[in-house]
Amino acid sequence: LFRKDSFAQIVSASLEWPTTAQWAFWHLVHAEGIPGEWLIQLLPKLKSSQHAEAAANVLLMLKRADRDPNMNMLRALFSRMPSSDDTFTIDCIKILIEDPSTCKRVSDNVGNLLKKQMAAGDLHIGGGTKGASKKSPQKLSMEQVLAHLEQFTQLCLMKEKKSAEQIFSNSTVLEAFMEAEKNDKVAPLRSKFAQLFAVVNILRDESRDKEQSSRTLRGNRGSGASSSSSKTRHKEEDKEVSSS
């Protein structure tokens, strides 16, 4: 019924339809089992306040589909302009990280995306290459990604599943933030998103403390086992001496 090359255009057109027509359309979409990757072109365009029906059904599709949080999907989500009134990007990420395996993939991709943006100098919103056409699409900036991540920490930290903490404790994400802290060109962003960087530093310290505690515990167990083995050996030797 639907084709990948025309699906995005149909959905875009449906945004202007009456609510009843949209409901019928999305009922067909769900019945067809459209894969999540068909939605990538739509993600930057949806506005949850204006396109409530479509936004709700996209979230439902992500929840039902086999989640594949690849880099293209994350780029599309982060390409949305950050807004305190629009949590669509955050809602999508929350769905993508529900499973521990996909949570790690999302985290790795976020960390790698930040590293690539620093390496390419894609730091600020609207900071395109000199001489580029005004009509050319803006590159996804580090500022946009950090804005979404800060909103994510504000809405999703300290929850029961600790999924948000897992993202910011991920080694690739921590490496990216450490690079950002050493990069002079990122200084304005560090200042703008000071709360986000503070959260990451706290989680980094907690992760380091847990790792050190775990090592100490393993070391104590090892030394305890060694001591116990030594005592047992000495007792056996004493028995042999006594019997002889």
Structure description:
This protein has 244 residues and is mainly alpha-helical. The chain has one domain. It is 68% helix and 0% strand. The N and C termini lie far apart (92 Å).
Question: Summary?
Answer:
With 244 residues, this protein is an all-alpha fold.
Shape: globular
| Quaternary | single chain
Q: How many DSSP helices?
A: 11
How many distinct beta strands?
Answer: 0
Overall pLDDT metric: 84
Strand count, sense and barrel status of the largest sheet are: none
Catalogue the unreliable spans.
Answer: 128-136
The whole-angstrom Rg is 25 Å
- The portion of residues assigned to helices is 55-70%
Q: What's the SSE pattern?
A: HHHHHHHHHHH
Q: Could you outline the blueprint of secondary structure elements for this entry?
A:
Blueprint: H1 4-14, H2 19-32, H3 52-64, H4 71-78, H5 88-96, H6 100-120, H7 142-156, H8 163-168, H9 171-182, H10 187-192, H11 194-243
Helix pairs in contact: 2-3, 3-5, 6-9
